[in-house]
Write a structure and sequence with these properties.
The chain is of the alpha/beta class. The protein folds into two domains: 246 residues, Ribonuclease Z/Hydroxyacylglutathione hydrolase-like (Metallo-beta-lactamase, Chain A, 4-Layer Sandwich), CATH 3.60.15; 145 residues, 3-Layer(aba) Sandwich (Rossmann fold). It is 36% helix and 24% strand. It is built from 13 helices and 23 strands. The strands form six sheets. Strands 1-2-7-8-9-10-11 form a seven-stranded mixed sheet. A hairpin with a 2-residue loop joins strand 1 and strand 2. Helix 9 crosses helix 13. The chain is elongated. Bound molecules: MU-OXO-diiron. The site of MU-OXO-diiron has 9 residues, from helix 2.
Amino acid sequence: MNAIEIKPDIYWVGVVDWAVRDFHGYVTPNGTTYNNYLILDEEVTLVDTVKHDFLDVGIANIKSVIDPSRIKNIVINHIENDHMGALEQVMEIVPKDVTIYTTQRGMAGMDRFFDISKWTVKTVKTGDELITGKYKLKFIETPMIHWPDSMMTYVEGAKLLLSQDAFGQHIATASRFDDEFIGCESLTELKDATVDYYANILMPFGALIKSKIGEIQKMGIEIDMIAPDHGIIWRTDPERAIQMYLDMANNQADERIVIIYDTMWHSTEQMTLPIMRGIRDEGVDCKVIKLRSTPMSVAIKEFWKARGCLIGSPTLNNEVFPSIAEFMVHLMGLRPKERLMGGFGSYGWGGGAVNWLYDMFSKMKLPVIEPGVQILYRLKPDDEKTCYDFGRNFARQVKEYQQKFTGTSAPMLKKEG
Ligand code: FEO
């Protein structure tokens, strides 16, 4: 796929990775893209590079627009390997006096990856500008969105925000823009991919994201296109992307419950059915995920979409089941907020898994309903009722808890139209 003009004299020169299914441990069933951008102005400027594996395609895309010997500036918005991985090879085909612009932390990180002593690297901070000709670039530091080095570049004159990881999605597609993708696929899929990306990568940084969006809004810059480093470019409705991020940063979720469980001899699995019936009879949407059969990143996304989550685990050697332990440790690192939690599970000897879960909920400072439900060996009819009542009571409490958040935004993920 050759370069595509996204604004007058500004080109997407990225690559589509149709095949990647494991993005540093994060499952990407739909592949991804590594977007970078070329600004043809009096000073030709490249913003970011591509993942090293796609170096040849990335350079061919640049060459399809301009001779790389005319490049004057390179902006590195983010030093993670998927965006800076091709920098060394790009530096070999551009003039020796090219200037690289990045943040202070970007330069420190760059120095760990490459020998930068032979390059001219200038550090920039929020508010610094680079006039390339008819366009003016404004740099905005965005530490921890996604790494400490991260920044965005606003192209004044084009009303274009080059947002690096923020507002991106892991989608490999022939569509470059939101309207094209919605026409071929759907808005629901685009939103789902955006939530998936946020949940798995940016969930811990909600407060930072909220304050950064506020800071950008205060700068008074006009944005009519957001071009991230992954996935679709928001040209029709960039405000939708901003609002989605604000909603997620405000811990918005849908009134639904996700049951995430694993099982040894199907007893914990059997418990999910009456629990789910209780939830449904209370009129609350419910999704059930068997963890061992589901990629971790899918479970994280579904967790994030729901206001309530029940975790089911059998007890193994007086401890929680290993797959559930892995999930909970991963979830703790993502620092979720404002999700109502509960635990259940079967046991044969002394129990222990449900207590372990409640200890984790407490460490994560998440609200809970107590007590959880533990069943010895196998469900008997009385136990089915206990599980049903547990599910129904949990759903009631989720509805009540959701009242605190209603009216603040549109549902995050419900289908539109
Ligand atoms: Fe797409 Fe944080 O790299």
